[in-house]
Amino acid sequence: MTYAHIVGWGKYVPSKVVSNADLSKTVDTSDEWIVSRTGIRERRVAGPKETSATMGFIAAKQALDVAGVLPIDVDLIICATATPEYSFPATASVIQDMLGAPKAGAFDLSAGCSGFVYALSIGSQIIQGGGHQVVLIIGTETLSRITNWNDRGTCILFGDGAGAMVLKASADPGGVLSSLVRSDGSGGDLLMVPAGGSHMPTSAETVLQGLHWIQMNGREVFRFAARVVDKATREVVERAGLTLDDIQLFVPHQANLRIIHAAARSLELNEDRIFVNLDRYGNTSSASIPIAVCEAVECGRVQPGDKLVLVGFGAGLTWAAAVIEWGVPEPLRKRNIIERTLRIVIYPVAAIRSRVAKFLRRIEARLFGTPSPKRIDKDGKKK
Around Cβ 11, how many Cβ atoms within 10 Å? Predict the structure, then answer.
């Protein structure tokens, strides 16, 4: 039997911090009001040159480095995001090019804040089925770009960041023990960006009406989340052949401290078995769970052999959960000088390769008479 182990992990958060006090200068709110209702004290906001792809790339590099895996060994990249680089191509493809992973397939996954656990479930099942040996999964978001910073009901909640994990096939038991993914599309209008898709294409009117910002029915989303977190956790633990007493750490989607506390009471979990970091990052959607797992590892909350439950919920409405037995099947060996040098040069080489490939494609188009497509610069102008 083949198991899918998490052998690498990485995260990235922007350096810019927006505190509750900062928000109180622009909207009618206060630190006390926000903390009492959400548990959030500050969030990170991407800078002008930071995007879902650039942040996902950094998190992916860290995860590959921890795993001791080179980009050329990656078989598949799954990027969970609600804020893709473009409608198409996929953000996963952009990151694949940045990494220099020539044999990797790549696609985006849209499941809101549940996206990373969806990707973990899909990636692990592909490995368990013998389809691939190494799968890179990424959750990355620039929610600040679709947040109405004049709406106190939503602007207090969201932040930017990215997290990544490397899944690798192994004959050793462990890794992802069970998972589930669920959806109830009847609640799709409770958390959405109304315009910009085929249902309501972008127009001057949709922009003026603010239909490209996140819109949320907070009360109904809270009720939904409090209900499904308990149900999904119990079901996925049972699927793994375990009980709640066997779980060392519960890592929920970092959306609202009230939701987390409600789930903890329902599951009868002590606070020391739950990891929370939303006070510093807010809701980073699909990035929240991998960022939280990375920080749990960094601060010693996760040890080899520990069993973790990851559970996400969000737009769709979607929810997903997974049980993981932590532990790298093969201890990392010390890298020799050739391997260390290769890791230093591989990403600059990937950037050069990408530029050369684009140049050769333009030359080929001219030689064979195919008109080169107009490229769009960052200001939206054709060049």
Answer: 26
CA distance linking residue 362 with residue 203, whole number of Å:
33
Give the residue range(s) of CATH 3.40.47.10 domains in the chain.
Answer: 3-325
Q: What is the pTM of this model?
A: 0.92
Q: Rounded to an integer, what distance in angstroms lies between the CA atom of residue 92 and that of residue 81? A: 9
Q: Which residues are catalytic?
A: 113, 253, 283
What does the DSSP assignment read for 51-86?
Answer: -HHHHHHHHHHHHHHHHT--GGG--EEEEE-SS-SS
CATH topology for 3-325 is Peroxisomal Thiolase; Chain A, domain 1 (3.40.47)
Does residue 373 surpass a pLDDT of 60?
Answer: no
Answer yes or no: are the C-beta atoms of 158 and 220 closer than 8 Å: no
Report the distance separating Cα 317 and Cα 184, nearest Å. Answer: 5
Kindly report, residue by residue over 118-129, the tens digit of the pLDDT: 999 999 999 999
Q: Tokens 């890791």 map to which residue?
A: 343
Q: What is the pairing mode between strands 191-192 and 42-44?
A: unpaired
CA 114, chain centre distance (Å): 9
